[in-house]
Amino acid sequence: NAGVTQTPKFRVLKTGQSMTLLCAQDMNHEYMYWYRQDPGMGLRLIHYSVGEGTTAKGEVPDGYNVSRLKKQNFLLGLESAAPSQTSVYFCASRLHNDGPSQFFGPGTRLTVL
Amino acid sequence: AQSVTQLGSHVSVSEGALVLLRCNYSSSVPPYLFWYVQYPNQGLQLLLKYTSAATLVKGINGFEAEFKKSETSFHLTKPSAHMSDAAEYFCAVRYNNNDMRFGAGTRLTVKP
């Protein structure tokens, strides 16, 4: 099992550009999450999904969109990147009936100039 | 608002010394509680979790944490620090199915 993987690992964007971050998990997990990590602020939930075809907003959803077309993939999109979106992005997943534990991907470091 | 507070953004101990990382949460309902560790340029790894069973929870790498409802605390301890314990540690609380809140993190430095 690869667990939770994220693509790409690093990316530099210019203000106004768009991009999509891909999260994939091979553990057949129902729930998937996107977080951003900023210095001194821990992780904050952007969007999450409780199953294929469903998404919901988290704590800081503005400026991001997500899609869960396949159970194993959860995409995070930035339509028009802003410098405030410079961050490290983590994806996580879990089974709905496996207690509360989340498994995290290795992260994507995004810089918006 | 529900929140998680980690006291001390940076803790430094000597190798072999006690490690104590503090975490307090705000809640009137017993939550699920976690400690995660993050090594440089890596994702978060689960150290241990509290799920309303025993109040003293043992995790990996010799860490443990005690849930104290009266103090709304879930402090992380390890009797003897090792150089490999140097990392950032995050306390997290989950109140319902998808509302997971993380503390700001505590960076642990271990001096030889």
Key phrases:
heterodimer, A: 113 residues, mainly beta, 7-stranded mixed sheet, B: 112 residues, 6-stranded mixed sheet, 5-stranded antiparallel sheet
Commentary on this structure:
The complex is a heterodimer of chains A (113) and B (112). Chain A has 113 residues and is an all-beta fold. Chain A is 0% helix and 52% strand. Chain A has strands at 4-7, 10-13, 19-25, 31-37, 43-51, 54-57, 65-67, 73-78, 87-94, 103-104, 108-112. In chain A, the strands form 2 sheets. In chain A, strands 2, 4, 5, 6, 9, 10 and 11 form a 7-stranded mixed β-sheet that branches. Chain A has a 4-stranded antiparallel β-sheet with strand order 1-3-8-7, with no helix packed on it. Chain A is globular, with a radius of gyration of 13 Å. Chain A starts with a strand and ends with a strand. The mean pLDDT of chain B is 90. In chain B, strands 2, 4, 5, 9, 10 and 11 form a 6-stranded mixed β-sheet that branches. A 5-stranded antiparallel β-sheet of chain B has the order 1-3-8-7-6, with no helix packed on it. Chain B has strands at residues 4-7, 10-14, 19-25, 32-38, 44-50, 56-58, 64-68, 73-78, 87-94, 100-102, 106-111. Chain B is mainly β and 112 residues long. The A-B interface holds A 4, 31, 33, 35, 40-45, 48, 50, 56, 58, 90, 92, 96, 99-107 and B 4, 9, 32, 34, 36, 41-46, 49, 51, 90, 92, 94, 97-105.
